Amino acid sequence: MTEPTTEQLLHLVDRAVDGRLLPEEAALLRAEIGQLHADIDNRDEQIRHLDAGLARERARVEQSARRLLPAAQLAADERDRAYAAEQRAEQTEAERDGVYRERARLVAHLASLYPAHIGHTDPTAPGWAVVIIEAPTGQMSWHIAERDLPLFAHVEPTSRICRGWDGHTTEEKYERLAKLVRGEGHTLFRAEHAEAAVARVRALLDTHLGPLASSAVRHALGQPSPAGAEDPNSPIKEQT
């Protein structure tokens, strides 16, 4: 006997309600109802099995989460500490740059008061310029960051005629600065600096122009020629 369709079952239910169900139809309806109960029981068993599996999986996940939570918390704490350290480093760098900026402003003012020149003359710090100031109490120099160079637009660039670093240490530099604050060294400064500049120019003239041209320049400037150099205004005797 073929299995009745849903429509046939509904028809049998209607006949049963009306009391017109035949015995063989009643038997068929009871059999289908029994099968339906069996299917429901089977589905219930499957659901209970799935619920048990889900409960076991949930317990396993919760156990794993409890085991991994300390590690996850440690990782989160480490990220927080790294972020805080990065923030502190950025703040410290900004404060340091601010201090460098303030120092550069003061050095720029000092360079406006005394002969000074600036250039990238330190091979050990190619990213920094060096400003050298010839103060009455001695030479002083500072490294200047690239971002602060506009503060030194009034300072002449370092050239061959500029006196280079005299070897002073940081302690000597600030001792010279302290003497400058106390007003020492101003009396002979102008004469000494002028003499040093003249001597530097003379040496450059002799080196790069040669004795004859150097003598001509010296004569034009009213400076004496070095011993042994020929006077360009003296008559040249022809050799016969």
Description:
- The protein has helices at 6-18, 23-113, 170-181, 189-221, and strands at residues 116-119, 128-135, 138-145, 156-157.
- The chain has 240 residues and is an alpha+beta fold.
- A four-stranded mixed sheet has the order 3-2-1-4.
Shape: rod-shaped
Residue share in β-strands: 5-15%
> How many beta-strand elements?
4
The secondary structure category is alpha+beta
Tell me, rounded to a whole number, the average pLDDT.
79
Uncertain stretches of 5 or more adjacent residues: 229-240
Strand order, biggest sheet? 3-2-1-4
SSE order: HHEEEEHH
Features:
4 strands; 240 residues; four-stranded mixed beta sheet; alpha+beta
Please write out the topology:
Elements: H1 6-18, H2 23-113, E1 116-119, E2 128-135, E3 138-145, E4 156-157, H3 170-181, H4 189-221
Parallel strand pairs: 1-4
Antiparallel strand pairs: 1-2, 2-3
Short description:
This protein is α+β, with helices and mostly antiparallel strands and 240 residues long. It has helices at residues 6-18, 23-113, 170-181, 189-221; strands at residues 116-119, 128-135, 138-145, 156-157.
